[in-house]
Specification:
Layout lengths: L2 H28 L12 E4 L9 E5 L9 E3 L9 E2 L2 E4 L5 E10 L4 E10 L8 E4 L9 E5 L8 E7 L9 E2 L2 E4 L5 E11 L4 E10 L12 E9 L2 E10 L5 E7 L7 E4 L5 E3 L7 E2 L4 E8 L2 E11 L2 E10 L11
Antiparallel strand pairs: 1-2, 2-5, 3-4, 3-6, 6-7, 8-9, 9-12, 10-11, 10-13, 13-14, 15-16, 16-19, 16-20, 17-18, 17-21, 21-22, 22-23
Length: 327
């Protein structure tokens, strides 16, 4: 077969082999193409009812966008406050807020705005007082140490008589006193500018005042001459106010009595039964001067050989037989 004829046959065979592929390509070229999905904006947030200054997390659940989400967090209808699928923001003061997410694909843009309410935080009431260990009848200074995390406190009221009503004083400070010892409740109610309120109560421990000493305070004197055999008493004198009780105990050799109790009609008692008696060494004379509800006096003389008696002076708390150091 001549070369020209052979080339013609080859071209015909190639054209026949390519015809199905060309037909298929033409069909695909003529078939309608599916349009890309339009962007849809959506998001969720938590917590659903946030408090002031609490962190709120916004998460985009949008679809169809091919650019990063943009956010309007300040309510100005411009998505220019944050970029990204997740943003975090806190809000103050309390009230209604709106947040918008914007999502786009370069051609179209979709937006979604959601509204929510930020709740007010109530104030926290707290009370300080001084002195911390007051006595009955003593003035107690009260001070509010309350605080509000998201706004000013505009009202402070006190319950000073324990009746549950905050109508005894107003302001950041107050004063009170209690005549009876015991624990006395004091309350404080504070309110912020949004109307939220908080209350606190403290129990103030009030103690009874310490007893007063007998007035005038008793005086005890012993006079005599001493030697190796003891002391020869010339006089024992007790000065105590009227209404006091004087008890004298004597133990040891030479005691003219073991116990004597007197209630002086005058301020001076001369214990004449000791006059002229010789109290031997190691003998002990104790004098207790008491008066109901008052601090009394205790004096003890211990007789020594060849030396003056040793003397101890103490106080007697009301109702106690045991002497203690005087304040």
């Amino acid at each position: 077969m001549p070369p020209a004829t052979r080339m013609r046959v080859i071209k015909q065979r190639v054209a026949v082999a390519l015809r199905p592929a060309l037909v298929a390509a033409a069909v695909l070229a003529l078939a309608p193409q599916a349009a890309p999905a339009a962007p849809v904006a959506s998001f969720v947030f938590s917590p659903p009812a946030p408090l002031t200054n609490e962190q709120v997390t916004f998460v985009s659940t949008s679809t169809g966008g091919n650019t990063p989400e943009k956010w309007d967090l300040d309510g100005d209808r411009l998505c220019d406050d944050a970029v990204g699928p997740v943003v975090v923001r806190s809000f103050w003061p309390a009230g209604a807020y709106a947040v918008t997410v914007c999502v786009g694909d370069g051609i179209d843009e979709a937006t979604l705005m959601r509204r929510f309410t930020v709740r007010n935080r109530p104030p926290e009431a707290a009370i300080a007082f001084a002195p911390t260990a007051p006595m009955s009848g003593e003035t107690i200074a009260l001070a509010s140490t309350s605080a509000d995390p998201d706004g000013p406190i505009v009202s402070q009221s006190w319950d000073l008589d324990g009746d549950g009503e905050f109508d005894d004083a107003i302001g950041a400070t107050a004063a009170v006193s209690f005549e009876a010892p015991g624990k006395h409740p004091v309350g404080l109610l504070v309110t912020d500018r949004d109307g939220a309120a908080g209350a606190a109560t403290v129990a103030i421990p009030v103690a009874a005042p310490p007893p007063e000493p007998i007035t005038p305070f008793p005086v005890v004197r012993m006079a005599g001459s001493f030697g190796v055999s003891g002391i020869r008493i010339q006089q024992l004198v007790v000065r105590a106010p009227r209404g006091a009780r004087v008890r004298i105990d004597c133990r040891g050799r030479g005691c003219p009595f073991h116990r004597m109790v007197r209630r002086p009609r005058s301020e001076t008692i001369r214990v004449r039964r000791f006059a002229g008696h010789v109290l031997r060494p190691k003998s002990v004379v104790e004098i207790r001067i008491t008066k109901k509800g008052e601090v009394g006096k205790y004096t003890r003389f211990r007789i020594r050989k060849g030396r003056p008696p040793s003397r101890v002076d103490r106080c007697l708390p009301p109702g106690s037989k045991r002497p203690t150091a005087c304040p």
